[in-house]
Write a sequence for this structure.
C-alpha cells in the first residue's frame, strides 16, 4: 500500500462511519414517524367504532389510507427505508385527513346530542326519574370525548381487543342514554304533553298561545308544572 493510500484510509473510514450513523438515525426517524402515523390511524378507527355504537353514526374510513399504512409497515419490516422515505409525507397527509374528517363529523353529532342530554339533565332535576350518575357519564363523554382511558385500560393492546372495547364502551353508553331518555320521556309519549317535553329537551321556548286548553290543563296536573316557563308570543 502506498503512503498516499495509507494517509487517505482513515478519512475514508471516518466518512463511511458518519454516513452509517446518519443512515441509522434516518431509519430510526422514519420508523418513529411511521409509528406515530399508525397510531393516528388506529385511534381514528377506534373513534369511528365507538361513535357508530354510541352516536349511531355511519362513518367510513378510506380503505386506501388503511392499505397505505399496512404497505408502509411492510416496507419497514423489509428494511426498505428508501421506499418508505418516498412515501412517508404523503402517507401522513392522507391519515391526518382521515382523522380530521372523522373527528369533525363526530364533533357535529356530539353537539346536537349534548344539547338534548343537557335538557334531560335539567328536566331530571325536577322530576327525578333517573340516576344522575348515568346521565353524568353520558354528558361527560359527549363534552370531553375522553374515551381512551376506557379503551386502553391495560397492557393488553391487541388491535382486535381494542376494537371490541371501543364497541362495548359505545354500546354501554348508548344504553345509558336510551334508558335515561325512556325513563324521563316515556310517561309523556302518546299524550298531549309529548311535544311539550320534546321541546323542553331541545331548549325550545314555549309560548302560551301555542298550547291547547287540554295541554295546559294536563301541564298543571303534571310534575312539569313548576319547571315549564311559558312566554307570551
Amino acid at each position: 500500500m502506498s503512503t498516499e493510500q495509507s494517509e487517505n484510509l482513515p478519512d475514508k473510514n471516518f466518512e463511511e462511519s458518519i454516513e452509517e450513523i446518519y443512515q441509522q438515525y434516518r431509519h430510526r426517524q422514519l420508523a418513529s414517524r411511521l409509528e406515530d402515523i399508525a397510531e393516528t390511524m388506529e385511534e381514528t378507527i377506534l373513534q369511528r367504532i365507538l361513535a357508530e355504537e354510541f352516536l349511531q353514526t355511519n362513518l367510513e374510513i378510506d380503505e386506501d389510507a388503511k392499505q397505505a399504512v399496512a404497505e408502509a409497515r411492510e416496507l419497514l419490516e423489509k428494511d426498505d427505508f428508501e421506499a418508505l422515505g418516498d412515501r412517508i409525507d404523503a402517507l401522513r397527509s392522507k391519515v391526518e385527513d382521515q382523522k380530521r374528517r372523522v373527528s369533525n363529523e363526530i364533533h357535529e353529532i356530539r353537539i346536537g346530542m349534548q344539547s338534548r342530554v343537557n335538557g334531560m339533565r335539567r328536566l331530571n332535576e325536577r322530576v327525578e326519574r333517573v340516576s344522575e350518575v348515568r346521565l353524568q357519564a353520558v354528558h361527560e363523554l359527549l363534552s370531553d370525548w375522553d374515551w381512551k382511558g376506557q379503551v386502553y385500560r391495560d397492557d393488553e393492546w391487541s388491535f382486535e381487543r381494542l376494537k371490541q372495547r371501543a364497541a362495548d364502551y359505545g354500546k354501554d353508553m348508548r344504553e345509558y342514554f336510551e334508558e335515561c331518555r325512556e325513563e324521563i320521556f316515556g310517561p309523556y309519549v302518546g299524550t298531549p304533553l309529548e311535544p311539550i317535553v320534546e321541546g323542553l329537551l331541545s331548549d325550545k321556548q314555549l309560548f302560551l298561545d301555542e298550547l291547547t286548553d287540554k295541554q295546559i290543563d294536563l301541564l298543571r296536573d303534571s310534575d312539569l308544572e313548576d319547571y315549564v316557563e311559558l312566554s307570551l308570543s
Q: What stands out?
A: Strands lie at 206-207, 230-231. The radius of gyration is 29 Å. Residues 3-54 form the longest helix (52 residues).
